[in-house]
């Protein structure tokens, strides 16, 4: 295990007595300690045990004899204020079991590698506060994707779908050299595609979608959202937009969406996925409707 | 990749508690839709068989011995049929209300309130169903 965890900074108790609200049990204990409400015996006990988080982590490894049958492992991780699910599994890996495997990188909800199925919902590990969850915290790999090892799932199908919608800017017209050499976009248009551009490819939406689970060819919310970003971009020509809609209006494109709102519910970046899919449905209909 | 593990369908079904409003709306809509189709065919079967056997003779209708009349009267005398009628109303009303909700969703109106509109259609269905009970269950013994 080469990834060495940085020693987590311990939150210092606020010096200002006004700030000592009952924010966390630790703060409360500190306040009680100061006022001498707890006798020394139990105080020592609390100091020794501290507050722990009970996490149950899905384990599976096809290469290890004892782990070929999937199971849940229990870890009791000391709680820190502001601790996230990712912090908890990282602590479990660094301190208890170095074979615990999961993807993570930036730890600030930008890289999109640590989407887990936490307490029955697809969430980003680094963005989910332990204190918001009911214990024991059950951490599983994303459903509807093949598990490679522990919390690592095979994302290749997801990436294939993302690439299927041609997620890159296409325009024949290069801007005039004498002009500003810029592809300018109006602020209004930028605002329109703003939310769709926030996708971090974490795959939470695809995993939550039960249409995508049953229909392997369905593009899925993330890919359609990606297509939305480019289809709604004014800088691309009308022809290219039509080409994009032709990809989307196929049998396994936008029309597979049955507006269950699961993807919108789980998206860690709050992208209104269903809204974007519905808008593309309307665009596809408008393109094909001719009243003359 | 040498090997991977597919957690399969059983675990998916075990997750029913984790569904959210939109998912429940979808499931209920499917369910009520199939119920209405089932009712439609039963309805056609009952009516067509009794009409086929009915003579349509005004005298027999007057005497209430016409097959069509007696079939329907016989059915309406059954308590279970009355209960099923209430159920049919509930199913139809929910399907209509949720259909309106889906229409709004398709038009892109109020997508942020989709869960509230689902709860609203559930409550409205409940109210209408309860209000219909006296009408449907009057004049029938268990």
Low-confidence stretches of chain B: none
Please give the CATH architecture of the largest domain in chain A.
Answer: Roll
What's the tally of helices of chain A? 11
- Overall geometry of chain B comes to elongated
Oligomer: heterodimer
Q: How would you describe the shape of chain A?
A: elongated
| Strand runs of chain B, count | 0
Return the CATH topology of the largest domain in chain A.
Answer: Ubiquitin-like (UB roll)
- For the termini of chain B, the CA-CA separation is 65 Å
Overall tally of structural domains of chain A: 2
Largest sheet of chain B: none
GO molecular function (chain B): electron transfer activity; metal ion binding
Subcellular location (chain B): Membrane
InterPro entries (chain B): SdhC_prok (IPR039023), SQR/QFR_C/D (IPR034804), Succ_DH_cytb556 (IPR014314), SuccDH_FuR_B_TM-su (IPR000701)
Organism (chain B): Natronobacterium haloterrestre (Halobiforma haloterrestris)
How does this model look, in words?
The complex is a heterodimer of chains A (292) and B (142). In chain A, a hairpin with a 2-residue loop joins strand 3 and strand 4. In chain A, the strands form two sheets. A five-stranded mixed β-sheet of chain A has the order 2-1-5-3-4. In chain A, strands 6-7 form a two-stranded antiparallel ribbon. Chain A is 35% helix and 11% strand. The termini of chain A are far apart. Chain A has two domains: 24-153, Beta-grasp domain (Ubiquitin-like (UB roll)); 156-169 and 188-288, Fumarate Reductase Iron-sulfur Protein, Chain B, domain 2. Chain A is of the alpha+beta class. Chain A has helices at residues 25-35, 40-49, 85-96, 156-164, 187-194, 204-208, 210-214, 221-231, 238-248, 262-266, 273-288; strands spanning 52-59, 71-78, 115-118, 121-124, 137-140, 147-149, 152-153. Chain A is elongated, with a radius of gyration of 24 Å. The longest helix of chain A is centred in the C-terminal third of the chain and has 16 residues, at 273-288. Chain B is mostly helical and 142 residues long. Chain B has a single domain (20-137), classed as Fumarate reductase/succinate dehydrogenase, transmembrane subunit (3 helical TM bundles of succinate and fumarate reductases, Up-down Bundle), CATH 1.20.1300.10. Helices cover 76% and strands 0% of the residues of chain B. Chain B is built from six helices and no strands. Chain B has helices at residues 8-13, 21-53, 58-62, 67-77, 79-107, 114-137. The longest helix of chain B is centred in the N-terminal third of the chain and has 33 residues, at 21-53. Chain B is elongated and about 75 Å long. At the A-B interface, helix 10 and helix 11 of A face helix 2 and helix 5 of B.
